[in-house]
């Protein structure tokens, strides 16, 4: 284990735990001013990245998208970062209702922060995630993403690196999945409900070519269009109030070049209980074909 990090090794379950007790006191945004709204820039640590009009100063109003260190980081230590990417100056502008330009700005911020994190050789893994709604783990209402950098490759990425580098299940899925599972295709990107869906209305977005690094793909506009479209379907056609989006890009190791980048998006309905937590066996309650049918229902995808 590297020195000075907050990672604890669980030798019984053979996995890392991030010990961050201060996160229990992070604000919920239910009372007081929103720390992510414009005008409240002094409530966050200094920004690490922002999309701003020329001539506007860091940590002042005027930004379109803004990245700041998380005041209550889940991870600390060499090669580790935890940032918040604020999607919009508008407190209610979710990705599901964003314009293509607004969503593209967010996805460009994801690329920029992943690139910055991975320029540090001590960082072995970086991930972007969105928690929308209380049931999905969002503590603040203002639309934002979490960007983390870790000095270890966590178990899910380790498994995905192993599988995609041997006989890639994503390539195979995109070639062989039944047509009714596909939601939409856009310039080399495909979105579908995978047959192995674990969560309700689970969506996988991936390039048809076996590309390792999202931040090098140049597909930000296409990703933005697919994501806003699909999240709108998720929230409107199937009335899912809480969802997560997770972007998995190549781990920052030599073997990472064999990864196939992709995005998971899924609804949060119900909660994990004894079987899921105790046996590590997720229970899939919505058939992926039915999920695809429902997601295609309202809007022409
Ligand atoms: Zn706000
Ligand atoms: Zn592949
Ligand atoms: Zn993944």
Helices and strands in order, then pairings?
Blueprint: E1 7-10, E2 15-18, E3 49-51, E4 65-69, E5 81-86, H1 100-118, E6 125-132, E7 144-150, H2 155-166, H3 169-176, E8 182-186, E9 189-192, E10 203-207, H4 220-236, E11 243-248, E12 262-267, H5 274-279, H6 288-295
Antiparallel strand pairs: 1-2, 3-4, 4-5, 5-7, 6-7, 6-11, 8-9, 9-10, 10-12, 11-12
Helix pairs in contact: 1-4
Bound molecules: zinc ion (ZN) (3 copies).
Give a structural overview.
The protein is α+β, with helices and mostly antiparallel strands. It has a single domain, classed as HIT family, subunit A. The chain has six helices and twelve strands. α1 packs across α4 (220-236). The model has no long low-confidence stretch (mean pLDDT 92). It binds zinc ion (ZN) (3 copies). One zinc ion is lined by residues 34, 36-37, 91, 142.
Name some characteristics of this structure.
binds zinc ion, 301 residues, ten-stranded antiparallel sheet, two-stranded antiparallel sheet, alpha+beta, HIT family, subunit A
Describe what is shown at a glance.
The chain is an alpha+beta fold and about 300 residues long. The chain is about 25% helix and about 20% strand. Bound molecules: zinc ion (3 copies).
The Rg value, from CA coordinates, equals: 19 Å
How many strand units? 12
CATH superfamily descriptor: HIT-like
Quick one: overall form? Answer: globular
Unreliable sequence segments: none
What share of residues is helical?
10-25%
Number of helices: 6
Beta-strand portion reads 15-25%
CATH top level? Answer: Alpha Beta
Order of helices and strands: EEEEEHEEHHEEEHEEHH
Q: Class by helix and strand content?
A: alpha+beta
Give the end-to-end Cα distance, rounded to a whole number of Å.
46 Å
